[in-house]
Amino acid sequence: MHCPFCRHPDSRVIDSRTSDDGLSIRRRRQCPECGGRFSTTETASLMVIKRSGVLESFSREKVISGVRKACQGRPVTEADLAVLAQKVEEVIRQTGVSQLDTNEIGLAILGPLRELDEVAFLRFASVYQEFDSLEDFERAIGDLRADHTASAENHPDAVKADSADG
């Protein structure tokens, strides 16, 4: 690491701390030449391979903007979108790969979006998974219904509460 003051090609780490989200490390450094102190932030790079073959850095903002369109008119806040993007990045980083294609990012988005809002999930899935017919929508809705049924069977208290309302 070059010193930003005197451009000496080396520096000494005097303190390291992990960020709150655990995705980066802040290091306090000192130059052995001039004695200047400065901080650096280190993160593991995560690169996305676009359909065209171009490489670019992963961006939570791009995840948010892509999902925002599916969430239009839904009760989803900007904070919800930020949390979703963070979950997506965490899922991707847990794979341990440094490069992934856009398709893998889409798959990583589907789970958290399904938990956030099922209508937005269907909208996103219909574009991402290229639904061609009503049968594709019916299959996706059937999967959602099956999950609701399984969830209700695993949580008998939820079933009692539902039957008490009716």
From TrEMBL:
Function: Negatively regulates transcription of bacterial ribonucleotide reductase nrd genes and operons by binding to NrdR-boxes.
GO biological process: one example: negative regulation of DNA-templated transcription
Zinc finger (unnamed): 3-34
Pfam families: ATP-cone, Zn_ribbon_NrdR
Cofactor(s), names only, from the UniProt record: Zn(2+)
Entries under InterPro entries matching the protein: ATP-cone_dom, NrdR-like_N, RNR_NrdR-like
Protein name according to UniProt: Transcriptional repressor NrdR
Organism: Microbacterium esteraromaticum
Keywords, ordered alphabetically: ATP-binding, DNA-binding, Metal-binding, Nucleotide-binding, Repressor, Transcription, Transcription regulation, Zinc, Zinc-finger
GO molecular function terms listed in the Swiss-Prot or TrEMBL record: ATP binding; DNA binding; zinc ion binding
Domain ATP-cone: 46-136
Family the entry assigns: Belongs to the NrdR family.
Superkingdom, taxonomy of origin: Bacteria
Cofactor binding mode and count: Binds 1 zinc ion.
